[in-house]
Amino acid sequence: MRLSGAFLLRYLHLYFTKKRSPEIDLRRVRVPAKVIILRSQDAVNEEALISDISKYANSQNSVKQSDLSANNPFHVEMEKLALSTYCPDGVGRWFYERAAGSYSTMLAREGVTPARLKHLKEVVTPPSRKITKTDLAKYLNAWDRKPDLVSLGSQKNFERFMDSLKAPEGQPPMPLPDVVIYKVMIAKAILFKKTHALIRPMFPAFQGNVVAYLIAVVADRVGSTVNFERIWINQDISPALRSQLQAWAPEINAVLHRSSDGKMISEWAKKPDCWNTVRLATYSPIHEGIPELR
């Protein structure tokens, strides 16, 4: 049985309200639910039907595509991997927010005491280690040298990312990620997040576009030599790699502005021609001694 995210959040809200305040009388509270019995034996068709039901049942509301994809096998598996894969310290984990609000729900469910809640938020799964579905799509598409898609915005980029997970018609489903692939994905997330933290104070505007294009240039120039296992183990990037990112960022920013021909950078960055221009530009030599590069 599958419960909609909205129904589950309402139910959990009532549950935790009663748990924290036993004196509250909830006997007259009712949570309406619609039950749909699926008789399909085909998992792929069933998943598509569930997605369509969610989409058209909520057509009167503004429903994001990322919300409708919560039960996609890829995201279900990512959630399982996040829950079972510990960081190298053996204590912390990353949190994959498959369903909107599930991070807050986890804190409410497991943070039964102030001390436990503090431990969860500071040691086990701090907000800095939370990744949403749209976050992951952004990190992976940027590394896959698709900064123009990333620049389309979170939902449109997510739609393109989900399209990339679909197997061609007549072909078997795409394989689900395993622990090794999961760690590489998290390493790419770390690289993107650390890069964003570096770039944000460097420019007054369009930082998101610069970050997406910078990550894509790194992938294009030295991607095959990056040791993601090192990034996973350290849960960070080295000072030498930070220095390289800070050196290339102004150069990429200059190319974006120079090639825009007066267009708004955020609009120009959405074009494949923009990526072709940035990719073919000349940049300063790669620094020596970057430990993440084999």
Description:
It is built from 15 helices and two strands. The protein has 294 residues and is mainly α. A two-stranded parallel ribbon has the order 1-2. Helix 10 crosses helix 12. The model has no long low-confidence stretch (mean pLDDT 89).
Write the layout of secondary structure elements.
Blueprint: H1 5-20, H2 43-57, H3 65-68, H4 73-84, E1 95-97, H5 102-110, H6 114-124, E2 130-132, H7 133-143, H8 147-150, H9 154-164, H10 179-199, H11 207-222, H12 228-234, H13 239-259, H14 265-268, H15 272-280
Parallel strand pairs: 1-2
Write a brief caption for the model:
This protein is mostly helical and 294 residues long.
**Amount of helix:** 55-70%
> What is the overall number of helices?
15
Poorly predicted sequence stretches spanning 5 or more consecutive residues: none
Mean pLDDT: 89
**Within the largest sheet, what's the order of strands?**
1-2
Structural class: mainly alpha
Question: What is the molecular shape?
Answer: globular
* Range of strand content: under 5%
Distance between the termini: 47 Å
Instruction: Return the string of H and E elements.
Output: HHHHEHHEHHHHHHHHH
Q: Largest sheet, if any?
A: 2 strands, parallel
Q: Using DSSP, what is the number of strands?
A: 2
What's the Cα radius of gyration?
22 Å
List keywords for this structure.
294 residues; single chain; mainly alpha
